[in-house]
Specification:
Rossmann fold, ten-stranded mixed β-sheet, 10 strands
């Protein structure tokens, strides 16, 4: 059986990631696993074993409160958190890793925590990021595509999810330009994308391709999501970043993740 591994830390966005993960696990009939890492450092009169028992009890209370069926793992971290998550996901045959976008719940600022950003940059396994709004159902799913072949990689999963949930599937292409784009150019782009889409089976689902123009791709994606009651944003990401790119590269997926109010799934 395939699994989902949720990295949990009791923050609000982490809770939202767990609730959304539970929703997806039921859709695909995947096993849900939840892991909480405790620090190897011991403070005061506490011990790692006491800390482990306390966190396990607190986590079980949350699962019971939200009627979530999941296997719980409490582990002592070696301070290489992202790599530990990936290694555990591989051991569990996880098709998906989930994590809160940030451990800090600040209403007037959106940013990505260091662990979430590291996972985004190094994981080959798709990652679901919890943001401000958890989802217990999906009525509108958005996938972004462009002329690059890797942008179509999540499409088989996305089409299957739309079928299982009876959700409307929005395929969005954003042309980045500060100016008006000639209708002929938009039609040419539409023809190219439709040609690539012939390789996929959209039978029995409600779907449409939308091409919009925006001064910035991420801004166009977020505005479309907000204006069309989207429940989940699905995107592809560059997986091979060098050390300088990991430090300074601000990708479209990163900007969308930072500004999204709903869950974001990155392949």
């Amino acid at each position: 059986m395939k699994t989902i591994l949720c990295a949990f830390d009791f923050s609000k966005q982490s809770e939202n990631a767990l609730i959304t993960s539970w929703t997806i696990s039921r859709i695909f009939n995947w096993e849900l696993n939840v892991v909480y890492f405790i620090s190897p450092k011991v403070y005061g009169l506490s011990t790692p074993e006491v800390e482990k028992n306390e966190k396990e009890k607190k986590l079980m209370n949350f699962l019971n409160e939200h009627k979530i069926d999941a296997k719980v793992h409490i582990k002592i971290s070696s301070n290489h958190f992202p790599y530990e998550i990936i290694e555990m996901a591989k051991q569990l045959n996880s098709s998906l890793i989930s994590i809160g976008r940030s451990s800090y719940d600040v209403e007037d600022a959106n940013f990505i925590g260091s662990n979430a950003l590291s996972l985004k940059n190094i994981s080959e396994i798709p990652i679901l990021f919890g943001t401000r709004k958890p989802k217990i159902s999906f009525k509108n799913i958005l996938i972004t595509i462009n002329e690059k072949s890797y942008s179509f990689e999540p499409l088989i999963f996305t089409v299957e999810m739309a079928k299982l949930t009876d959700a409307k599937l929005h395929l969005l292409n954003v042309i980045e330009s500060p100016y008006n784009v000639p209708i002929e150019e938009i039609k040419l782009q539409e023809a190219k994308l439709n040609e690539n889409l012939k390789n996929y089976n959209f039978k029995d689902i409600d779907w449409h391709l939308k091409i919009i123009v925006s001064e910035e791709v991420s801004k166009g994606i977020l505005e479309y999501a907000n204006n069309n009651e989207i429940d989940l944003i699905i995107m592809s990401r560059r997986k091979s970043l060098n050390i300088l790119e990991r430090l300074f590269y601000s990708s479209t997926t990163q900007r969308v993740l930072r500004g999204a109010l709903i869950p974001v799934l990155l392949f």
